[in-house]
């Protein structure tokens, strides 16, 4: 079974500062699996991964490519794993959907803009983006 810890190690993104931002989630306890065929057909192509409370699901092509971009994607999804665990299934989904529709109706800028306005997505994106700077120097390149 492939775990998030293995991907972070393979991509050089297993720095203690990164792990600290994921706590209490242990990357070694989170399996990473490729999308089942039917999910690959249903989801838009720009969605590279999704997270359920206990598993990260990634498109096969992204797993095959690997590299730092995969590592950042896994960090992004590990933040969602932490959010699922902190808020529970109903809390996570309720917050996610509320943020999405509030932005969709408030701004009327379409799906992608509403998706980016979801606070859980913003947090996950910020942690993943900071990971690149953390690896090189041990000090985050951006404050969160």
Give the gist of this structure.
The chain is mainly alpha-helical. The protein has helices at 4-10, 16-22, 37-42, 60-65, 67-107, 111-116, 119-137; strands at residues 32-34, 49-51, 56-58.
What does this protein look like?
The structure is a single chain. The protein has 144 residues and is mainly alpha-helical. The chain has one domain (4-137). The chain has 7 helices and 3 strands. The protein has a 3-stranded mixed β-sheet with strand order 1-3-2. A hairpin with a 4-residue loop joins strand 2 and strand 3. Helix 1 (4-10) crosses helix 5 and helix 5 packs antiparallel against helix 7 (119-137). It is globular, with a radius of gyration of 15 Å. It starts with a helix and ends in a 7-residue tail after the last helix. Mean pLDDT is 88; it is low at 135-144.
The secondary-structure class comes to mainly alpha
Radius of gyration: 15 Å
Q: Taking strands numbered 1, 2, ... along the chain, how are they ordered across the largest sheet?
A: 1-3-2
Into how many domains do the coordinates divide?
1
Helix and strand succession? HHEHEEHHHH
In whole angstroms, the N-to-C terminal distance is 32 Å
Give a quick set of tags describing it.
144 residues, 6% strand, mainly alpha, disordered C terminus
What secondary-structure arrangement, pairings included, does this model have?
Layout: H1 4-10, H2 16-22, E1 32-34, H3 37-42, E2 49-51, E3 56-58, H4 60-65, H5 67-107, H6 111-116, H7 119-137
Parallel strand pairs: 1-3
Antiparallel strand pairs: 2-3
């Amino acid at each position: 079974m492939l775990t998030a810890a293995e991907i972070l190690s393979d991509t050089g993104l297993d720095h203690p500062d990164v792990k600290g931002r994921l706590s209490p989630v242990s990357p070694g306890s989170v399996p990473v699996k490729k999308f089942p065929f039917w999910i690959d057909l249903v989801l838009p192509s720009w969605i590279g991964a999704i997270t359920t409370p206990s598993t990260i699901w990634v498109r096969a092509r992204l797993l095959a490519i690997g590299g730092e971009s995969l590592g950042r994607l896994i960090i992004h999804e590990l933040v969602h794993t932490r959010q699922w665990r902190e808020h529970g299934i109903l809390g996570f989904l309720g917050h996610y959907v509320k943020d999405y529709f509030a932005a969709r109706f408030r701004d009327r800028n379409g799906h992608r803009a509403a998706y980016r306005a979801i606070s859980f997505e913003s947090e996950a994106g910020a942690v993943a983006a900071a990971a690149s700077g953390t690896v090189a120097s041990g000090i985050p390149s951006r404050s969160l």
